Amino acid sequence: MSNNHDLETPIKNYFDADSDSVSYEELRALEKPVAHLVDEYGWNAVRQAFFRYVRNECKTPDDIARAAFRYEGLNWNKKPIPDPYEFLGYLYYKAGFNKAPYDAARALDDLCITILPASGYPEANIYYHPYYAAEADPKMIAAVERWRQREANEAGEDSNNNSTTNDPQEPHEDSKKQENL
Questions:
Q1: Could you give the CA distance from residue 181 to residue 146 in angstroms, rounded to a whole number?
Q2: Which of 1, 44, 88, 169 is the most buried (most CB within 10 A)?
Q3: Residue 117, CB-side half-sphere exposure with 13 Å CA sphere
Q4: How far is CA 121 from the centre of its chain?
């Protein structure tokens, strides 16, 4: 349990910090321990902890934008992830997808065109496909819709006092199968 706390606390402290309330030096001091987490815990553990942070703490498009900009600032967007459409689909879903505010849309588009190619999806590489847009990508649209449905189902289950056992940091198997269609 200590490992999770040691991993998640610096993530929460850094990604929660309001740049309007803390100085540049304070923000850099919060960034330092986060920048070394991948070396200490491995990329898989860090990306899962980050996704748990986003699921639990990012409630508004501004929260999503701040997290996305800082994720990119750490160069984590250049690391491959096994489920990039599910990861990005969740972020787009929470930001409002087609109706996302400018900062959130810009931050997510920047992540999208780096994470997808790094994860083996060259169709999002804007150097070769300059007209790529996540909002027109059928895989991204499907991922956003899966998250919308998942959260609607979870809300319905919560109102019926049922708890879900799905692990929030990993996509469902059926979503991986649908992505390959």
A1: 14
A2: 88
A3: 15
A4: 17
Tell me the pLDDT tens digit for each residue of 10-63: 999 999 998 888 999 999 999 999 999 999 999 999 999 999 999 999 999 999
Q: Residue 104 is encoded by which pair of tokens?
A: 């959130």
Q: What whole-number distance in Å separates Cα of residue 57 and Cα of residue 68?
A: 13
Nearby residues of 133 by Cβ (< 8 Å), 6 or more positions away: 109
Rounded Cα distance between 143 and 86, Å, is 6
Angle 74-111-40 from CA coordinates, rounded to 5° = 30
From the number of C-beta atoms within 10 Å of its C-beta (0-12, 13-18, 19+), residue 27 rates as middle
Cβ 61 vs Cβ 150: under 8 Å: no
Task: Using alpha carbons, select from 74, 143, 75, 64 the residue that is nearest to residue 106.
Answer: 64
**176 Cβ contact partners less than 8 Å away, ≥ 6 residues apart:** 83, 86
Burial (0-12, 13-18, 19+ Cβ within 10 Å), 139? buried
| Residue 58: partners with Cβ closer than 8 Å, 6 or more residues away | 64, 67, 94
